[in-house]
Automatic annotation (TrEMBL):
UniProtKB keywords: Coiled coil
Family annotation (InterPro entries): PspA_VIPP1 (IPR007157)
PANTHER family assigned to the protein according to its UniProt record, in alphabetical order: MEMBRANE-ASSOCIATED PROTEIN VIPP1, CHLOROPLASTIC, PHAGE SHOCK PROTEIN A
The name this protein goes by in its record: PspA/IM30 family protein
Pfam families in alphabetical order: PspA_IM30 (PF04012)
Any coiled-coil regions, as ranges: 26-53, 124-197
Annotated family: Belongs to the PspA/Vipp/IM30 family.
Source taxonomy: Bacteria, Pseudomonadati, Bacteroidota, Chitinophagia, Chitinophagales
Organism of origin: Flavihumibacter fluminis
Origin: domain of life: Bacteria
Keyword Coiled coil: yes
């Protein structure tokens, strides 16, 4: 059966090499699993048909056995009637021979059907066993496919991030940051210088105001004028 040939092929090492060359291993695997599910359904249906055929054949065998025994009993009954004079002996023997012939015919058919039953039952058991194995493997492969999908998503995301990082101009970015840093430092220094200049101007202005406000020189002049007018010497003997 194709399904069992496929099972054998899946186990071969060449499958791994083929998967590595696939453009999209996930889609290819999904397609393979869909085909296997279809073949599994076909195999299950085939198993059911073989099982049903085995049952029908076994029923036919039992029927032939029953008919064989029935004709054997008829042959005996006819001869018993001939024995007591109910049937002509010649006629009874003729009918008995016909009954015994039919008995042999049904018995031979029963033997042949019995061989068929054994063969069909063995085939159905093998098909059931292989179908169960395929079901178990399908569950395992579907689980692995889910894991593979998750790994593919992670690997694609990682690849995209790494690709973006690889495309960044690291040296250019660092140089730009250094230029911005130097520019900020220059601006900070310039602002500080302007602040110091403004502070110096403020100090000078304050000193000037202090001088302007300080009228001690005028007071001394006025005092000296009074002393001169009064004839008071600044430095008495």
């Amino acid at each position: 059966m194709n399904i069992f040939k496929r099972l054998f092929r899946i186990g071969q090492a060449e499958i791994h090499a083929a998967v590595e060359k696939m453009e999209d291993p996930v889609k290819m695997t999904e397609q393979g699993l869909r085909e296997l599910r279809k073949e599994l359904a076909d195999a299950t249906e085939a198993y059911a048909k073989v099982k049903a055929l085995a049952i029908r054949t076994e029923n036919d065998q039992l029927h032939c056995q029953k008919e064989s025994l029935n004709y054997a009993e008829k042959a005996i009954l006819i001869m018993q009637k001939a024995q007591v004079g109910q049937v002509d002996m010649g006629k009874a023997e003729e009918l008995a021979r016909e009954a015994l012939s039919l008995r042999r015919k049904f018995w031979a058919e029963s033997e042949e059907l019995g061989n068929q039953v054994v063969s069909l039952q063995q085939s159905s058991r093998e098909m059931l066993r292989n179908t169960e194995i395929l079901k178990e493997n399908m569950e395992k492969w579907e689980k692995e496919l889910r894991t593979l999908k998750a790994r593919v998503k992670v690997s694609k995301a990682t690849e995209q991030v790494n690709k973006q990082l690889a495309q960044l101009d690291t040296n250019g970015t660092i140089a730009m940051l250094e230029r911005m840093k130097n520019k900020v430092e220059d601006q900070e220094a310039l602002a500080k210088a302007y602040g110091e200049i403004a502070g110096n101007k403020s100090n000078l202005k304050d000193e000037l105001n202090d001088l302007v406000k300080d009228d001690s020189f005028s007071i001394e002049k006025d005092l000296q004028a009074i002393k001169e007018k009064l004839g008071i010497n600044q430095n008495p003997a």
